[in-house]
Design a protein that fits this description.
alpha+beta, CBS-domain, 2 domains, four-stranded mixed β-sheet, 60% helix, globular, binds zinc ion
């Protein structure tokens, strides 16, 4: 879905496939619509060159916007897993929510402020360029990008999750109420109202003016905000519900383990077809060697499964993610999110103590919520 294009500030930058499509769409719409209408003196070839350069500059601006969030996060010790650029702009994927309200506000506000700063610089150059007589193609690039960065900053200030404005709102509510969960609930409510208004406005636009493009665009944005708010609320509820619970409290103790010398086919027959687990620790002489999962099996072709051993198919010890039993359940959740995996082996050195899965965390969260208890349970 996404390709890596490198690292900036130590953060992997990825491009989502939808971005290529949107890049072409923006370059095209500039070349055939906006530019001929605004600068009729440009040739068709120049329209395309200016359109392409402007689209490219727009994506660089979006990247700088995202990097501004990441910079504040990193400076305050908050890890950023990766930045993914996709059709709306970008997403900085935090593997951890900010620990204090002030940081959340500063981090969220950095993005729109950066966009406004870019708009200011480009707008200034555009103005000077007009006075001293820059080539019209350069003026066109500067003018468009000044406008679009201003719009980007303004759009992100809408107080709705997962937009920056929504984070500023939540951070401010959090600062005054001192309660993250209440702040998130209230901020989510605002997001939901805004998203419903956007969906209604989009529908109205389609029905009343037959403006399908803008109407569907607004409906889509409304839907995006709604689902983002929902996810954020769930994540906060989970963190709250898991408060004070350690990995040792909810892990499965003494899990079934697999010997590295058996074949992959034996593993399928004797483990995957018999037990309901999606993965097993591989252990020899009481020492953890690695982890074998359904996808390790899938990576071995059917014909080879009688010959290859679990030791050859497993994810080796050096590359697996483990956690200690005294770590908090919330840490386990963050680790899984960060590494995009569904289970962690609980170890003491190279001894396996247990296994903890995303399902265990969800079950525990649900139980705490059903009982209406948040922090005290389990301790
Ligand atoms: Zn932002």
């Amino acid at each position: 879905m996404s390709v890596n294009i490198g690292k900036i500030l130590g953060i992997p930058i990825r491009i989502h496939w939808t971005l290529w499509f949107v890049f072409l769409l923006i370059a095209w719409s500039l070349a055939v619509g906006y530019l001929p209408a605004t600068y009729p003196q440009l040739s068709v070839t120049m329209d395309w060159i200016v359109g392409t350069v402007s689209a490219l500059l727009l994506f660089i601006s979006v990247l700088v916007h995202e990097l501004s969030h990441s910079y504040i996060a990193k400076k305050n010790g908050l890890p950023i897993a990766r930045i993914t650029l996709f059709f709306f702009g970008g997403v900085s994927e935090m593997s951890q929510e900010p620990q204090d309200a002030g940081l959340e506000v500063r981090m969220a506000a950095a993005g729109p402020l950066t966009s406004f700063a870019i708009a200011g610089v480009l707008g200034g150059l555009w103005y000077i360029g007009g006075l001293v007589g820059f080539p019209i193609a350069v003026i066109a690039v500067l003018g468009y990008n000044a406008l679009i960065n201003g719009a980007l900053g303004a759009f992100n200030l809408i107080p709705a999750f997962p937009l920056d404005g929504g984070r500023v709102l939540r951070g401010s509510l959090w600062r005054s109420s001192k309660n993250l969960l209440t702040a998130t609930k209230n901020a989510t409510r605002v997001s939901e109202i805004l998203s419903l208004l956007m969906i209604a406005a989009g529908l109205l636009l389609v029905v009343a003016t037959a403006d399908f493009v803008n109407g569907i665009w607004i409906i889509f944005l409304g839907w995006f905000i709604r689902s983002g708010a929902e996810t954020s609320l769930q994540q906060t509820q989970m963190t709250e519900a898991l408060h004070g619970i350690t990995v040792g409290d909810i892990m499965t103790k003494n899990p079934l383990t697999v010997n590295p010398s058996i074949t992959v086919q034996q593993l399928v027959n004797e483990f995957f077809l018999v037990h309901p687990h999606g993965g097993y620790p591989v252990v020899q002489n009481d020492k953890l060697q690695g982890v074998v999962t359904m996808s390790s099996v899938r990576s071995i072709s059917k014909e080879r499964r009688d010959f290859e051993t679990v030791g050859q198919a497993m994810v080796p010890f050096q590359r697996i993610v483990t956690i200690g039993q005294m770590a908090s359940a919330a840490d386990a959740m963050q680790k899984m999110a960060q590494k995009q995996i569904g289970r962690l082996i609980v170890t003491d050195g190279d001894t396996v103590l247990g296994i903890i899965t995303r399902g265990d965390l969800m079950k525990r969260t649900k139980m705490s919520q059903d009982l209406g208890v948040q922090s005290a349970i389990g301790r």
